[in-house]
From TrEMBL:
Pfam families attached to this UniProt entry: MazE-like
Name listed for the protein in its UniProt record: DUF3018 family protein
Domain of life: Bacteria
Length: 54
C-alpha cells in the first residue's frame, strides 16, 4: 500500500492506525495556510462590521 492509499484510507476510517497522524498532517497544512493568508483577518473584520450595521 503506497502513501496515497494509506492517506485516503486514514481519512475515511477513524479506527485506522494512521488516522490521527493524517489529521495532524492536515491540521498543520491548514494552520500554515491560515498564517500565510494576511487578507483573512481584514475580510473577517469587514464581515463583522457589515453584520453590526444591520
Amino acid at each position: 500500500m503506497n502513501l496515497d492509499q494509506v492517506q485516503r484510507l486514514a481519512r475515511k476510517n477513524p479506527r485506522h492506525p494512521d488516522f490521527a497522524d493524517e489529521c495532524r498532517r492536515q491540521s498543520r497544512l491548514v494552520a500554515q495556510a491560515d498564517m500565510a493568508d494576511t487578507d483573512m483577518p481584514r475580510f473577517l473584520d469587514a464581515a463583522l462590521a457589515d453584520l453590526d450595521d444591520r
